[in-house]
Amino acid sequence: MRALAQYRTGYVNDSTSLVEVRADFSGFAVPEMGVFGNGQEIPSGSTAASTANNTDFDAAAVLGGVAVRTFTISNTGAATLALSGVQVLGAHAGDFTITAAPALTMPPGESTSFQVTFDPRDTGVREARLQIASDDADEGAYVFALAGTGTGPAPEIVITGNGFDLPNGNYHFRTEDFTDFGDVVATGGASVRSYTIANAGNALLSLAGVSFTGLNSADFTMTQPPTTTSLAPGGSTTIQVTFDPGAIGSRFASLVIANDDGDESPYLFEIMGTGVQAGFDDLTLQATPNDPPLTMALQTDGRIVIGGSFTALGSTNRNRLARFLPDGTLDSAYNPNANGTVHATLLQPDGKLIVGGGFHHDGRRAAQRPCATAAGWHGGPEFRSEYQRRRGGLRGV
After folding, report:
1. What pLDDT does residue 169 have?
2. How far apart are the C-alpha atoms of 161 and 271, rounded to whole Å?
3. Counting Cβ atoms within 10 Å, is residue 172 exposed (0-12), middle (13-18) or buried (19+)?
């Protein structure tokens, strides 16, 4: 610092002199405070709140809705920074509360955090000022604007599958959140999934219906509807959806829940499943043959043909050949009635079934003399024999 001083000798006619005095204060260390929200610096004296730096708390519902923001105070100076208080001032100061206080001292290079909670007492824009008092030489009262919007009571729909949130508009398919029903045997199989509808808001949530849309919506059915059409705040209900694929391959639909949530009606998310062809492991026979089958064949429509030496399945007469529907029930329209043991079956590319064994007629048409034959039957309910004479027993195809 430099200063000039003027002095006189005391005599009237004496000249006046100036003296320059210099002082060096560069050796004195001082603190320097900065305040940040969401990683962005908040200038002292700022009068406009922003969501970018956490000074605008956005919207919160009156009577129960809150929004919490975190702020950081840093000391970039060379001396310890001492805080003497943090307070909220202004027209709506009562809507903003310091819910986690900062440390009162910060060595150089250190920082501390504090939290402010916005709990609006009325609807509309709510404004206040945050003031931080400290021993910062040029910012002893660090002040900036706060704002938030109070909203009226409103419902808030939330849907989960297997405990996982299913966002509105979700189109990702996962088995763990029940949006993927997995592999299911087409025409006869079924997979059931449950979803929970909850009200996370502070007003009554009304449900107006559950439906399915999309390319394969007919494959999905609501087999357990909501137990109520209205949910109180904090309430929930469960629905069940059954997937029964009408064809083989990936099957898609949208689950749509109509409701009165102001910004999520209708609530929609995608679901899928895969229709697969029945295999022997998927089939539970509803009628047991009186002699173990010697051969089986799976038709393209999921029906299964068995052959052997049996003459009955449960209480139904069936000689050596029988067919089951995809659900395991006996196909009453299929009864070739072979008169000898069936040892082998093979499905041809054209859909006909080749059957080999020690029979010489199928109860409908006889060969010219007793011999082993190979007969072909269509996969449909009608069947016809195309006899080919064989001199020896055909035991493999």
Report:
1. 95
2. 11
3. exposed
